[in-house]
Design brief:
The complex is a heterodimer. Chain A is built from seven helices and no strands. Chain A is mainly alpha-helical. In chain A, helix 4 packs antiparallel against helix 6 and helix 6 runs antiparallel to helix 7. Chain A is globular, with a radius of gyration of 16 Å. Chain A starts with a helix and ends with a helix. Chain B is α+β, with helices and mostly antiparallel strands. Chain B has two domains: 60 residues, no CATH class; 200 residues, Rod shape-determining protein MreC, domain 2 (Thrombin, subunit H, Beta Barrel). Chain B contains five helices and 14 strands. In chain B, helix 2 crosses helix 3. Classes of the chains: A mainly alpha, B alpha+beta. At the A-B interface, helix 3 and helix 4 of A face helix 2 and helix 3 of B.
């Protein structure tokens, strides 16, 4: 219960950061829109997949309602929740099956964590990018945006992870 | 039943994922204007092409009905053409009524039997007295003349084809209005012979041979064929003109029987030949 509240506050922090800080920040890199939002799916602890997908759906839909684009972020978040564990298993091939994989830097290590969030960001921006333009007509420009956004997101999430999880995990 | 539930439970992760994504997608296309219009355009395109190909397939099953209805419409339209009318210019007292009076009507018929190879060829039509076909009426195809009805039963009628020794029709050359007679010489089912064209008439191949206004059987100007060859016959100082038949008698499927509404009126005032 306590940890549930903790993760709820974490979600609120991410949401506030996304909507009131990152979205209001001046555009530094061309094409880029700094997105940290889907970090809450990565940050969530290991739990039953259906719960994870439900939470991701609700959270994505909340952001969509704020943005006025129903469905786009929710679709990407549900996809991330569905692929979270398979992606971790793809990157880190554990010999022991009974260890529950975790999407954190303490489990994966710096290098593999980088690849993990790169894949996750790429997926997320690919889905939201193509859903929001909803055409393959100017696919080149859309893909360019996807890559730029992915790089920005990877940097943001890496910083976020180190601030919120790395030190605390290292202590314990 | 139990197996189905077991299957659903084993893959519940995937099914929930699909359901959630489906909800997301429906939200995207229902509540975003651009995506919604793009999606409806795409789905219109898909359903349109599917329905179009299906309709194209269905069209073939209804070709027969379509054809029949077109034939009926053609018959109606032919009856409205000016050469199916009797042009009444006489200044009688009660002329204020109308200028055109119906002179010819057309009855669409199926050809059910056909011969071209013998000396005396007949066609059989699938319509008889019930459809209004009478004795001694002209028969035309969509392009040209075909023959004359001979015997009529309740549901069938036999037609004396153009390719018959006894068939004659009054014809004229459209370009110079020269009247002659068309018969068949019995050799080629694509050719008929036109006689009684004087040698002083200038002929060219490709001239149109049409029915003359003298004919009771066909509306004036109905195509018979085209001049392909002409030879001077010095015995009677006339040309023998070979005419390529416009209608392909061999491959006829649908014909019209021409009903001349004013024939009796015309024949009643004409002196009757003794032979008939």
């Amino acid at each position: 219960m306590i940890s549930g509240l903790k993760y709820f506050f974490l979600f609120l922090i991410i949401l506030v950061l996304q909507v009131f800080v990152l979205d209001q920040a001046p555009q530094i890199v061309p094409y880029a829109r700094p997105v940290l939002f889907f970090a809450f799916i990565i940050a969530l602890p290991e739990m039953y997949d259906l719960w994870l997908m439900g939470i991701a759906f609700a959270g994505g839909l909340l952001l969509d309602i704020l943005y006025g684009t129903p469905g786009i972020n929710a679709a990407a978040c549900v996809l991330l929740a569905y692929l979270k564990v398979p992606l971790i298993r793809l990157i880190k091939k554990d010999e022991e099956d009974n260890i529950i994989p975790s999407g954190h830097i303490t489990y994966l290590g710096f290098g593999q964590y980088f690849f993990y969030i790169l894949l996750v960001s790429l997926l997320y921006h690919f889905v939201t990018g193509f859903l929001s333009v909803f055409t393959f007509a100017q696919a080149g420009q859309t893909i360019l945006r996807v890559f730029v956004n992915t790089i920005v997101s990877v940097i943001l999430i890496y910083i976020f992870e180190i601030i919120f999880f790395y030190r605390r995990s290292a202590k314990t | 039943m139990g197996n189905i539930f077991a299957f659903l439970l084993r893959h519940i992760r995937f099914f929930v994922f699909i359901i959630l994504e489906g909800i997301c997608f429906s939200l995207v296309v229902n509540y975003n204007r651009d995506q919604g219009s793009a999606f409806s355009q795409f789905s219109n395109e898909v359903s349109g092409s599917v329905y179009r190909s299906f309709a194209g397939m269905k069209y073939y099953f209804h070709l027969r009905e379509t054809n029949d209805s077109l034939m009926a419409e053609n018959a109606r339209l032919r009856a409205k053409m000016s050469n199916a009318m009797y042009f009444d210019t006489a200044k009688s007292k009660d002329i204020h009524d109308t200028v055109f009076k119906q002179r010819y009507t057309f009855i669409p018929c199926d050809v059910v039997n056909n011969s071209v190879t013998s000396m005396n060829n007949y066609l059989t039509l699938g319509s008889g007295k019930k459809a209004g076909v009478g004795k001694h009426l002209g028969v035309v195809s969509t392009v040209g003349i075909v023959g004359i009805t001979r015997d009529v039963s309740e549901h069938f009628s036999s037609v004396l084809s153009v390719l018959h020794k006894d068939f004659t029709v009054s014809a004229e050359i459209k370009e110079n209005k020269q009247i002659g007679t068309v018969t068949w010489d019995g050799y080629n089912p694509n050719m008929v012979v036109m006689k009684d064209i004087p040698l002083n008439v200038r002929l060219k191949t490709g001239m149109h041979v049409v029915t003359s206004p003298f004919s009771d059987l066909f509306p004036a100007g109905t195509l018979i064929g085209y001049v392909v060859k002409y030879e001077a016959n010095h015995n009677d100082a006339n040309y023998t003109v070979t005419v390529w038949l416009a209608s392909d008698i061999r491959n006829l499927r649908k014909v019209y029987v021409v009903n001349n509404l004013m024939r009796d009126e015309k024949q009643n005032i004409e002196p009757k030949p003794e032979s008939k």
